[in-house]
Amino acid sequence: MDMTKIAICAPASPITPDVAEATQALVAAEFPMHSVHFHDQCFERAGHFAGDDLRRLTAFLECSNDPAFEAVWFARGGYGSNRIAQAAIARVNEAARAKTYVGFSDCGYIMGALYKAGVGQCAHGSMPVNARSPDGHDAVRRVLRWFAGDNSGVEPSIDGGTPTAAFNLITLGMMAPTGLMPDLTDHVLMVEEVSEHLYAVDRIFFSLSGSLPRLKGLRLGDVSDVPENDHPFGTQLEDIAKFWCARAGIPYLGRAQIGHTPSNTVVPFGLASPFKRS
Amino acid sequence: MDMTKIAICAPASPITPDVAEATQALVAAEFPMHSVHFHDQCFERAGHFAGDDLRRLTAFLECSNDPAFEAVWFARGGYGSNRIAQAAIARVNEAARAKTYVGFSDCGYIMGALYKAGVGQCAHGSMPVNARSPDGHDAVRRVLRWFAGDNSGVEPSIDGGTPTAAFNLITLGMMAPTGLMPDLTDHVLMVEEVSEHLYAVDRIFFSLSGSLPRLKGLRLGDVSDVPENDHPFGTQLEDIAKFWCARAGIPYLGRAQIGHTPSNTVVPFGLASPFKRS
After folding, report:
1. What strands, in cross-sheet order, belong to the sheet with A217-224?
2. I need a surface site. Which of A1, A98, B52, B206 has the fewest CB within 10 A?
3. Which residues on adjacent β-strands are paired with residue B126?
4. ipTM score of complex
5. In the prediction, which pLDDT does A13 show?
C-alpha cells in the first residue's frame, strides 16, 4: 500500500477541531500508512470564510507549494474557493504541479481552475468534514484508499478511456462564464447538487446548456435534500437532466454515484488513473 | 393622459383569479383610460409553470402578435420564462415589434431576449401579482402611470442620456452564458435580489464579474428577505457589490430604487424614453 503525506487546508468555509480529530482517528486506525496535517487556517473564521481571502490563499499555497506533501485535501466546501482561485493559480510552484488535490462542492471552483491550468491531478471526492458523522466514514475511506493506490472507491462507470470531471451544479453554473472554467470538451461530465429546489436545478441546467462544449456525455449524481416547494415541480429529477441534455445535444449517460451523500465516490479529473507516487 | 390596451400573460408561474380581480379593480378605479386583458393561460398550472412550455409560448405570442394590444404585461415571475424565450423571439411579428413589455424577476429572461433582439420597448416594472396586497399597489400604480405617459414612477437616477437595464441577480447570472443575454456594453446596469443568502449574492457577483462587458456603471437595488445563515456573512451587502465592481473594473454608482418591494420603480431598457403611443 502506498503511503501519502496529505496537507489539509480550507479554501472556503472552516471546520471545527472535532472534524480534524475524527479524521486523524480514522487514519490512525485504518490507514496508518498515511499522514494528515491540518493547517491551522482550517479552524479560523472570518464571517462565512475560513479566514479572509489572503489568509485562505496563503494557507493553500503553503500546502501546495511545500514539497514535503504529496497531496492537498480540502477540509470542506461551504463557500469561498472562487474568490482565491485565480490568485492561487498564479502562485503555484513546481511542487504544487506534482500534487494531487481532492475535494468537491464549493471546492470545485479551485479544482476547476487547477484543472484548467494543468496543475497536478484533481479528483472529486469526499472531504475531512464528512468524517464528522459515522455515515460519512465510508465516503472518506474511499478517498483514503485511493490515496493508497486502491481504486475500489472510484466512480464505477469510469472506464479509464474517457476524460472525466465532476462538479456541483451551482458551482459549475457560476464558474461557467468566468476565467476559471476548464475546457470540458469530449469529457464525461458528472454533476450533483444538494439543498436546491428542482426549479433551481432546472435553471442551472438551462444556464449550462447555453455554454457547455461538446461533451462525451453527462451523468447525473445525487441531488439530495431537495426542499419542499409550494407546488410540486411537475418533472422528475432525471427527466430534467434528460430534457436539457436533449436540448443541448449532449448524450445523457445515466446516473453517477456522486453527491452530498455517504455513497459519494472518487472521480479523478481527466483520464482516470490510479493515484501514483514516485 | 394616454390610454393603453394591455394584454397580460404568464411566461413563468401562474396567478390566481384574485390577482386579476385586484388589478382590474385598481385600473377601473384609478386608470379608466387603460384596459387590461388577462389571457386565460395566466390561471393555468402545469407543475411549477403556468401551463407547459408550448402553452406559455402560445399565450405570449397571442398577446404579442395581436395588433389590438399596445403593451404586454407579464403577470408574475416565479420560474420558467427562460424555457420559452428563444422560441418566442423566433416567432414574433411586426405587431410584437411595436409593443411595450413590462415585468421583472424571472421575466428578465424573456425581456433580456426581447432586448437583445431589438423587439419592442422592454421595461423593468412591477406586475399584476403585486396588486394582490395593498402594499404593492403603489408599485403597480407606477407602471400604470408610465403606461399613461407619466414618468413619475421611473427610477430616479435615470438621466435619459445613458442606456439602462435592470435585472434580478440570479436571473442575470443564469442568463449570462446563454444565447439570451443582451449586450449591456456602456449601460447602467441595475440589479436586485430576493430570498437569497448573502453568500449566494456574493457568488452571483463573482460569476457576473467574469462575463459582464464594459458597463457605464452598476447600481444596487433592494436585496430583500435575506435568509438568516448559521454565521453572519461578514461583509455588508453594499460592500459585496463594491468589492466585485472594483475587481471587475465596473464603476459602482450607488443604490437603485428597484426590487421585490413596494418601492420598486420602472426602468425602461435602453435609452430611457416615455412610453409613447401613436
Report:
1. A164-168, A188-194, A217-224, A252-255
2. A1
3. none
4. 0.94
5. 98
Which residues from B are below 8 Å from A178, CB to CB? 206-207, 209-211
Q: How far is B210 from chain A (nearest CA, A)?
A: 4
Dump pLDDT digits (tens) for A198-214: 999 999 999 999 899 99
Q: What angle do CA A51, A57, A63 make, to 5 degrees?
A: 105
Question: Cell for A100?
Answer: 494531487
Cell representation of residue B188: 447602467
- The three-class DSSP label of residue B278 is coil
Residue pair A206/A139 in contact (Cβ under 8 Å)? The answer is no
How many CA atoms lie less than 13 Å away from B192 in the CB half-sphere?
26
Q: Does A225 touch chain B (CB under 8 A)?
A: no
Cα(A243)–Cα(A230) distance, integer angstroms:
23
Max intra-chain CA distance, chain A: 56
- Short-list A124, A97, A113, A110, CA closest to A269: A124
